[in-house]
């Protein structure tokens, strides 16, 4: 007896091996890409420290150019800038980089006690047109982590010098 013809199978779907291969490839891709999608704890602290350092440098430059002092006021979770007007009253600055800034959840700042100027449960520093002799360090921390970034304000020959030390374990 001769059997002729093709054996036809009605194959629909994927085999178990094909599905497992796809899952492994996706897991590898997710493992490589996922850490780069969001900011790490270090990234949050560094981004805020850079933002603060730039805003402080702009405030120092504005004080020098306008001849009027600018005050930076901070609490652990926010900061703002004020400018002294010609009548010696402090006025809130709310434009551009001087807007009141709420820090992201989990990020907070502090000023070492020995450097602190403290008023009404807030730290402050006055960036005058002519630099003073005081230096100040502002520490930014990530809650639940030992990482901190440091922003330093110090007088220099050409005005206020503002720099930032990237996040490191303290």
Task: Briefly characterize the structure.
With 170 residues, the protein is of the alpha+beta class. The protein has helices spanning 16-37, 41-66, and strands at residues 70-75, 78-84, 90-93, 101-102, 107-110, 118-119, 122-127, 136-142, 147-156, 159-169.
Overview of the structural elements:
The protein is α+β, with helices and mostly antiparallel strands and 170 residues long. The chain has a single domain (41-169), classed as minor pseudopilin epsh domain (minor pseudopilin epsh fold, 3-Layer(bab) Sandwich). 28% of the residues lie in helices and 35% in strands. The chain contains two helices and ten strands. It has helices spanning 16-37, 41-66; strands at 70-75, 78-84, 90-93, 101-102, 107-110, 118-119, 122-127, 136-142, 147-156, 159-169. The strands form two sheets. Strands 1, 2, 3, 4, 6 and 7 form a six-stranded antiparallel β-sheet that branches. It has a four-stranded antiparallel β-sheet with strand order 5-8-9-10, with helices on one face. It is elongated, with a radius of gyration of 28 Å.
Could you list some keywords that capture this structure?
single chain, 170 residues, alpha+beta, minor pseudopilin epsh fold, six-stranded antiparallel beta sheet, four-stranded antiparallel beta sheet, 10 strands, 35% strand
SSE arrangement:
Elements: H1 16-37, H2 41-66, E1 70-75, E2 78-84, E3 90-93, E4 101-102, E5 107-110, E6 118-119, E7 122-127, E8 136-142, E9 147-156, E10 159-169
Antiparallel strand pairs: 1-2, 1-7, 2-3, 2-4, 5-8, 6-7, 8-9, 9-10
